[in-house]
Structures are given as C-alpha cells and as structure tokens.
Amino acid sequence: MSRVALVTGGTRGIGAAISMALRNAGYKVAATYAGNEEKARAFHEVTGISVYKWDVTSYEDCGKGIAKVEAELGPVEILVNNAGITRDAMFHKMTPQQWNEVINTNLTGLFNMTHHVWQGMRDRSFGRVINISSINGQKGQMGQANYSAAKAGDLGFTKALAQEGAAKNITVNAICPGYIGTEMVLAVPEKVLNERIIPQIPVGRLGEPEEIARAVVFLAADDAGFITGSTISANGGQFFA
Ligand SMILES: NC(=O)c1ccc[n+]([C@@H]2O[C@H](COP(=O)([O-])OP(=O)(O)OC[C@H]3O[C@@H](n4cnc5c(N)ncnc54)[C@H](OP(=O)(O)O)[C@@H]3O)[C@@H](O)[C@H]2O)c1
Q1: Does residue 241 fall inside a structural domain?
Q2: Residue 147 annotated in active site
Q3: Domain range for residue 165?
Q4: What is the chain's pLDDT, residue by residue, as a tens digit (241 residues)?
Q5: Tally of structural domains, the chain
Q6: How much distance in Å is there from the Cα of 50 to the middle of ligand 1?
Q7: Residue 179: CB within 6 Å of ligand 1?
Q8: Which of 44, 181, 229, 232 is found 20 to 30 A from 14 (Cα to Cα)?
Q9: Per the domain annotation, does 240 fall within a domain?
Q10: 69: closest CA among 27, 123, 38?
Q11: Active-site option among 33, 52, 147, 179
Q12: CATH code for the domain of 16
C-alpha cells in the first residue's frame, strides 16, 4: 500500500514540484491550495493529483480538510508544510496586517496542519513532517522582518517536534530553500533580481522547484528514519548555516 502524502500549497511553485516528485516516487498525493482555482484546476488536469482547497490559517478548516483527505485517500503519513506568503515592507512601514498575515500563514499554519495529523502518526508509529522554511529564516532579510521571524520560528518548531516524535518513528525536518524561480521570486523586479540577488548566489542562478522537491523525497522515505530535527539548506551556496 502506498503511503499518503499531503502537500500544502501543492498546486503551484515549489509545492507543485513536490507533489509531482512524491507522486512519481509512488506516494498517493493530496495537494492543497488557498484560492487560485485556475492554477489548481490546471494542475489537477495535467497531473491527475487530487486537489483540496482550504486556508491553513484556520485550525478548524485544516481539521475538516484533513478529515476529507483521509476519508478519500487514507491516513496522512507524510505532511509537507509548504504553503507560504510574503508581505514585504521595511519594518518602519510594516503594518500589523502584514505582520499577522505572514505569521498566521507561515508559522501558525504549521501548528494548524501538524496538530491534526500528529496523533494519527503517533498511533501508527510512523510519520514524516517536512517543513519548508527559508534561507531568510536562517540569516534574516531586510524588508522581511515578518517573513524571517516566521521562517525562523518554523526551524524552532521543527527541532522541538523532532524530539517529541522520535520515540514514535516520526521524523520532523526542515528545508531552507534559497532563491527559487517561482512566482514568489519572479515578482521581484528583474533589475533587483539580476543586479542584487543573483550575484549573491555562488552557483550563479536561481534554484529550480524540482531541486527542493528532490530533498523532500529524500526526507519522506521509509529509510530516512535516522534523520530528524535537521535543516537542509538548498541555496546554491549563498549561506552556510
Ligand atoms: N520561491 C522561493 O524562492 C522560496 C525561497 C525560500 C522559501 N520559500 C518557501 O517555499 C514555499 C513555497 O513557495 P513558492 O515560491 O512555491 O510560493 P508560491 O508560488 O507563491 O505558492 C504558494 C502556495 O501556497 C499556497 N498558500 C498561500 N497561502 C495559503 C493559505 N493561507 N492556505 C493554504 N495555502 C496557501 C498558495 O495557494 P494558491 O495557489 O491558492 O494561492 C500556493 O499554492 C513557501 O513556504 C515559501 O515561503 C520559497
């Protein structure tokens, strides 16, 4: 029986690459999204992967959504917390709304999702939780006090939960991507990308979503059980944590 993997924000960007890589590795995959129906429909039509819509900032909606996935596909044994947003602003101009939206999605979303699958993983003595953090949670980034705080929080969450899950064969790991060529990054003005960001990346290019998905498949595997609480940096050599 193939295991069920749930990928939040799994219908586009890095998440879509993760969903496809897990499916290609033999998992039954559920990909969630927040509201971009067009991208979700196109993703489903091309891949055949089941898609589900809910907002990870709502604890109740996560519970209902996960129950639906489990009724249709089976218990969630691999959870990839990938959904994330940016609301960039210099701190002196950052609004409480920009702060709260990013913390609620990128940090509290991990609690909302993981809490609903955790007891099942404990009961079955197997689980893989993989959190997509960011290079900017490791090093901090000007204009992203909200995002850097949330992503650094994801790393603390990962390390604490890894200790709780270890005795039950549940691993909890984080991946910190550097700059990857998705809509999130391609929204940055081209001049800033070419003159300020890419020159800081020793490999001389943006990463590909598939290069993050590769690390997820590695951590999801049954024989990755001795790797927990770790952070994999995938950033083209830009920062060594
Ligand atoms: N791109 C990078 O360079 C980079 C670097 C480091 C870390 N990351 C992290 O990697 C992850 C994926 O990034 P990406 O670049 O692939 O982003 P993206 O292309 O903007 O896609 C984000 C995905 O998250 C979903 N999402 C956003 N808010 C949500 C919410 N409240 N509830 C449920 N789903 C929600 C979106 O759903 P809709 O499609 O419905 O909008 C979308 O599927 C994020 O956590 C990001 O912080 C990205």
Answers
A1: no
A2: yes
A3: 4-233
A4: 799 999 999 999 999 999 999 999 999 999 999 999 999 999 999 999 999 999 999 999 999 999 999 999 999 999 999 999 999 999 999 999 999 999 999 999 999 999 999 999 999 999 999 999 999 999 999 999 999 999 999 999 999 999 999 999 999 999 999 999 998 888 889 999 999 999 999 999 999 999 999 999 999 999 999 999 999 999 999 999 8
A5: 1
A6: 18
A7: yes
A8: 229
A9: no
A10: 27
A11: 147
A12: 3.40.50.720
Entry pTM: 0.98
Mutational pocket test of ligand 1: of 19, 37, 82, the residue with most ligand atoms within 8 Å of the beta carbon: 82
Is the Cβ atom of 57 under 6 angstroms away from ligand 1? yes
- Structural domain contains residue 10: yes
Ligand 1 pocket check: which of 100, 184, 206 to mutate, most ligand atoms within 8 Å of Cβ? 184
Nearest atom of ligand 1 to the alpha carbon of 81: 45
